Amino acid sequence: MNVKVIVGAQHAYACIKTETTSLDVLLSPGRSPAQSLEETATEMREKAAKLIARAELVEQAQKLL
User: Fold this and answer.
1) Amino acid 43: pLDDT
2) DSSP annotation string for the chain
3) Nearest alpha carbon to residue 40 among 18, 56, 8, 16
4) Other Cβ atoms closer than 10 A to 16
5) Over the stretch 18-34, which tens digit does the pLDDT of each residue have?
6) Cβ of 36: how many Cβ atoms within 10 Å?
7) Could you tell me the pTM of the whole model?
8) How far apart are CA 30 and CA 11, in angstroms?
9) Cβ within 8 Å of residue 61, ≥6 positions away
């Protein structure tokens, strides 16, 4: 994995690259890149958990049809 922080005039980004994936993550102003990435990962996990719970509910509903 390769991670670079790119600072522009308006925003900063963490550019994350692996052999199979490339992802640019907007960094929060006033926080270190590491802290901002940690917060972003937490937010993503929370959203993913909600999405998984909704998917399970949809599957349960599908089985009732």
Assistant:
1) 98
2) -EEEEEE-SS-EEEEEE-SS-EEEEEPPTTS-HHHHHHHHHHHHHHHHHHHHHHHHHHHHHHHH-
3) 16
4) 15
5) 999 999 999 999 999 99
6) 19
7) 0.84
8) 11
9) none
Alpha-carbon dihedral 50, 46, 28, 33, rounded to 10 degrees:
-140
Asked if 21 and 28 count as a contact pair (C-beta separation under 8 A), the reply is no
The answer to whether 30 and 39 have CB atoms below 8 angstroms apart is no
Distance CA 34, CA 49 (A): 23
pLDDT tens digit sequence for 51-62: 999 999 999 999
Residue identified by tokens 């049809």 is: 65
